[in-house]
Amino acid sequence: MPVSPISLCPSCPGGSTQGHRCAVYPSSSVTDAQWAILEPLLPPPGNTRGHGGRPEKHCRRTVLDAIFYVVRGGIAWRQLPSDFPPATTVYAIFTRWVASRAWRRIHDALRDQLRVGDGRSPLPTAAVIDSQSVKGADTVHGPTRGFDAGKKINGRKRHIAVDTGGLLLAIVVTAASIQDRDGALRLVTTLRAAFSTITLLWADGGYSGRMVAWSKSVLSLTVQIVKRSDDTTGFTVLPRRWVVERTLGWISRHRRCVRDYETRPDHHETMIHIAMIAVMSRRLARR
C-alpha cells in the first residue's frame, strides 16, 4: 500500500519536531477531521506537571492510529507495522485507558454529539437489545468461555443495547453458554443504571418469559417482543430488530471483533467500544 508523505503533528511531544505519517492506512488511520473531534476527548497526558513519571514519548495520534489498525485489521499487537510506536507501548496505553474507563467516556461523548446533531436528546427513551455469539481463540481462558448449542459456537457472547438509530448504549460480554434471557438480566440492569430515561425495549422471541416480567416489576421497563412470523421463509426485515442487527454488522466490519482474541471480557467490551468510536467519529467528521 502506498505511503503518504510525513506530516508534522503539533500535538506531538516536543512540538512539531516529531512528525508522523497521516492516513497511511486509509481504512483505519485517523483523518484530520476525526482528530479534531477525538483529541479533546482523550485523557490528559501523563506527567503534565513535570514530575511523577516519564513524559509521553510518542505522538498520541499515531498511538490512536495503531489501536484503530489493530481493531480494524484484526492482527495481533506484536504484528503492528514498524512505522507505529512499539507494540508494547501501544498495548500499555490501551490497557491504561481501559482501566481508567477512558474508552467508554470517549464513546459516550461521541454518541451524545451524534444524537444532538440529529436533533435528539442525549438521553434516549427506548432501546433495542440482541446478542451475538463469536468464536473464541486459544487466548480466551476457559472460565470465561462456553458453548452456544444453538449456534454451535465455542467462545463468548456479547449482549448489546442500542438506541433507535443503532448507536451503542450498553454492552455485556459473557460466556457463549449463557442464555439470551439470562444475559439480558445483566444487560438491562447495566442499561437502567446508565439511562434512567429509558422506558421501552424491543427484543426478539429469545427474550420472552421471565425476563419480560422481571424488567417490568423491578426496573419499570416495558419489553415488547418482535417475533418472526412462522410462515415467513428466507430473510426478512423485522420492525425495530433490524436496527440492532445493523449495529452488529457495523461491529463485524472490524476484524478484531469478528473473533474473540481477548483474554479478559472487559477488553472485548473495549474492542466493541473502539469499533463504534471509529464509526461515530467518521460520521461526525463527514458532517
Give the N-terminus to C-terminus distance in angstroms: 28 Å
β-sheet strand percentage: 15-25%
**Whole-angstrom Rg:** 20 Å
- Which residue ranges are poorly predicted, with pLDDT under 50 across at least 5 consecutive positions? 1-8, 13-19
Percent helix: 25-40%
Number of helices: 8
What does the average pLDDT come to?
88
Structural class: alpha/beta
What letter string, H or E per element, gives the SSE order?
Answer: EEHHHHEEEEHEHEHH
- DSSP strand tally: 8
Q: What does the largest sheet look like?
A: 6 strands, mixed
Identify the overall geometry.
Answer: globular
Description:
By secondary structure, the protein is of the alpha/beta class. 38% of the residues lie in helices and 16% in strands. β4 and β5 form a beta hairpin. Residues 1-8 and 13-19 have low confidence and may be disordered.
Topology, element by element:
Blueprint: E1 6-8, E2 19-21, H1 32-38, H2 60-73, H3 87-99, H4 102-117, E3 126-135, E4 146-148, E5 153-162, E6 168-175, H5 180-194, E7 200-203, H6 210-219, E8 222-225, H7 241-252, H8 265-286
Parallel strand pairs: 3-7, 7-8
Antiparallel strand pairs: 1-2, 3-5, 4-5, 5-6
Quick overview of this protein structure:
By secondary structure, this protein is of the alpha/beta class.
